[in-house]
Design goal:
By secondary structure, the chain is an all-alpha fold. It folds into two domains: 11-65, Homeodomain-like (Arc Repressor Mutant, subunit A, Orthogonal Bundle), CATH 1.10.10; 72-218, Tetracycline Repressor, domain 2, CATH 1.10.357. 75% of the residues lie in helices and 0% in strands. Helix 2 packs across helix 5 (67-88) and helix 4 (57-64) packs across helix 5 (67-88).
Length: 220
Amino acid sequence: MPASPARPAGTRKSASWTQDPDGVRRNILAVARDEFVENGLSGARVDEIAAKTSTSKRMIYYYFGDKEGLYRAVLEEAYARIRNFERSLDLAALPPREAIVSLTGFTFDYHADNPDFVRLVMVENIHHARHLQSSPKIADLNLSVIDMIGEVYERGLREGVFREGLDPIDIHLTISALSFYNVSNRASIQQVFGHDMGAPEARERRRHSAIETVLRMLCR
């Protein structure tokens, strides 16, 4: 009996794309995120990403065009995820002060629990945010949190809870800075001062401090 013809290289691995294209895309993005977090945009290799996925290098280019297109898609997914969680907080249903406490606590916890997000933002800043600039999707996504804070702030002004003269973007930047630094500088702080910012007690103190700082910024 004649032997079966050899299967072309990569055929079996990439066959699932026609059966579950969304699943293949999610798989590529998950692997690519890990590679970009670990090696940055410049150090990540599409060959390495393809080797760890359920598809082929050719299919990665089919979905995303090139490595920068793949990286941009990873950024878009990362920002979409945090913005979706923020919307789920339903801040409009909370009194203004409680809404700010909820948002600040969530933001602090999200950064602490998702250090990969912080690393991706750090990588993008190395590249002067040019991939953020080229993505209208990310710009639209990130406007939502400013609108959300603006609505809470306006309610707080009307109710006499918040002081006047603040800009929602400054409120957002303060919340983000207090949350971001706790993750971005964790390794260097531990080496320089011997202080583990990720330890449960230290994290809880920093979380409380972040909330109190934002409330002092806002409240009368």
